[in-house]
Amino acid sequence: MIFDTHVHIGKKKFMVKIKNENRDLPAYNSIIENTWEKYIKIAVKNNIYKALIFPFPLEEVDIYQANNYIHTAYEMNRELFIPFYLLDEQLDLDELELNQVFGLKEHFYISRNVDIRAYFPVYEYLQDKGKFLYIHPHMSERIERIHHIKNEFPHLKIILAHSGRKWPFTGEEVLDLVVPEFKSYEDLYFDTSTISDSKVISKMTNMLGGHRVLFGSDYPFSQPSVDIYQAETEMIDKLDVTDEDRENILRNNFKRLFLEKVWIRRVAREDRTKLFEIFTELSAQDRKFLALDQKLDVIKTNIRDERHIYIAEDNNNNIVGYIREGGRSNQGAIIEEILIPRKYRGKGYADLLIRTVYNKFSYVDAKTFMDNTAVHALNIRLGFDIVKQSKSGKILYWRKINDKRIK
Fold first, then answer.
1. CATH class label, 262-401
2. Backbone conformation region of residue 100, classed left if phi is above 0, alpha if psi is from -120 to 50, else beta
3. CATH for 2-258 (3.30.200.20, 3.30.530.20, 3.30.465.10, 3.20.20.140)
4. What is the mean pLDDT of residues 5-33?
């Protein structure tokens, strides 16, 4: 299970006419389109369970459109994405708060011609709210500019893309320049993307401590004919660090910095044992309400395929909730089961799971036994309407229309 702190999401149509001087730059010759639908398939294939996403940081990108697309991706896929916007001095800070943006990405190549003071209100907002500034430092000015930012905003949390390396796919200047310059800033973190040198990452980890290094892929940018995730994960496997530091780099630092005490992800094959332990502890009434005994084979298949099931997990790796959906026509879904273990009930986890599913579809259906009063109350509170009752009167059918679903 891998958490990736460096993924680009966007579409080519967000680009205006490319400047002649930029046409031969490597970034412009790489893939500059990566829809969230496409990336979800990549994530499943490569064992990615959380991804920090931001737009392609190119001069010709329409920042408003690109940032709005990140918001769309997050709203519809909260089990996978953590949203960062591109920095712009004209950003509406109230909108950032409303859209639950976790931080901003600044590319020094783009901001190099802007007086740094123009960004001070944004930096101050990030510092005050405990959000992150993700910096792609660009060549010679990167050291001086970062020091300037930290001197003005000492409590601003910063992530350094590519650990500040000079050239792509090398670790040049990381150990002899960048780490010594910034080691004293305890709230400045380093991502591993496109360094391609396990010795550099190992030494950097040992110099800084494993709590300050995060796995990043820079997907979809890569060297020609290279499988990005295979190359990046193989490099992490070769690190000469402790098992604890490797866990921190791949997962734990991401959890600590970006996830709540309880968070949602898609199901993993390794969840089967825990889920079936939860099932065995259910009361006879709970099993009846869930119609669990009739569904176990389908549930096993969904777990194996890592589809249709979403897990609520706490930071102690406990499964505190579970929901399974089934697709319906016209971009809808039905909630097949929702289950919160008894000791975790009454904490809002059912709301969290239902909203995760609801945001994905144009409508969500559910059906309940007439005597399942606890779920009835939950459905009513979340805005479901009763659309019909079975002829026997034993089952209620519910629906919630998603009028705000982002197309």
1. alpha beta
2. left
3. 3.20.20.140
4. 80
